[in-house]
Amino acid sequence: MATTIQPSKRKTQSSTKTIQPLTRRKAWKALTAHFLKIQDVHLRDLFAADSKRGELDLVLVMTVNPGFGHQHFIHSTLRKITRVREISMSTRMIANWN
Length: 98
Hints:
Blueprint (H helix, E strand, L loop, with lengths): L7 E4 L4 E4 L6 H13 L4 H7 L27 H14 L8
Antiparallel strand pairs: 1-2
């Protein structure tokens, strides 16, 4: 059952602006069309069709909790960092380990 959302009006300093609902926006329509196109395609077929799909550009392991000062190192991240390095070395990925 689809829900209809009415456009809202937001007052700004100079005027009232109508905000278009997400489902009426161009990007939403493009996303819906893309979904309809690929909804029956299995994930393995997507990867087989595009050899670069799934490649990594960056791996970030947070060794502290973001947003807090005077933090201590999270020791459980060492295992993750070690595993990422093992994978990068075994696949001959170029890594900056400085």
